[in-house]
Write a structure and sequence with these properties.
The protein is mainly alpha-helical and about 180 residues long. About 70% of the residues lie in helices and about 0% in strands. It has helices spanning about 5-15, 20-25, 30-35, 50-60, 65-80, 90-140, 155-170. The radius of gyration is 42 Å and the shape is rod-shaped.
Length: about 180
């Protein structure tokens, strides 16, 4: 039985293509294409990139990429290169996506609480100001601004005490 790399090389030669042609079509480096044809899987970049190289190569030859990827995985496993330490990239990608979604949700929740707090503050302030205004108009609230009773000077007393000063200043200017 022929090896994966030999079968791939035979398919390429039967179509009359050189490795340089495959390189020009797929932009996969010649060293990786050659390593694939020679079953030297250790020279490949590893992980999910290996599958991409096989799919690109098979697609450039007009072969079924899925079937050739499965054959590659069988040959790769038979070579003893697959270890339990190899990362599961799909699980990693889903974890990254889940973490991003959780961060986004947490930020949205903080913004909602901030908005609710600001709204509560505005409604409370508007309620207090409305109560003071209505109380002032009705006469049961002494003033709109909260002054202490000891510092509160009636407006009429302040104006009447300033009247002699106004008269004296106006007499200086001849009015």
């Amino acid at each position: 039985m022929a090896s994966f790399g030999e079968d791939l090389r035979k398919e390429r030669l039967s179509r009359g293509l050189k490795l340089e042609n495959i390189n020009a079509i797929t932009k996969i480096s010649l060293s990786h294409l050659l390593a694939l044809e020679q079953n030297r899987f250790r020279l490949l970049p590893g992980g999910i990139l290996n599958k991409g190289i096989v799919r690109g190569y098979a697609g450039a030859l007009g072969l079924d990429p899925q079937a050739w990827t499965e054959r590659f995985l069988e040959a790769y496993s038979a070579s003893g290169l697959v270890t339990s330490e190899e990362p599961d990239w799909t699980a990693f990608a889903s974890n990254v996506g889940r973490v991003r979604i959780l961060r986004h949700d947490a930020a949205e929740e903080r913004l909602r609480w901030l908005g609710a707090s600001v709204l509560l503050f505005v409604v409370t302030a508007a309620g207090i100001l409305t109560l003071r205004y209505v109380g002032l108009r009705a006469g049961w609230w002494p003033s709109f601004l909260p002054f202490h009773a000891a510092h509160h000077v009636p407006v009429r007393a302040a104006v009447s005490s300033m009247r002699p000063l106004v008269i004296r200043v106006s007499s200086l200017f001849g009015h």
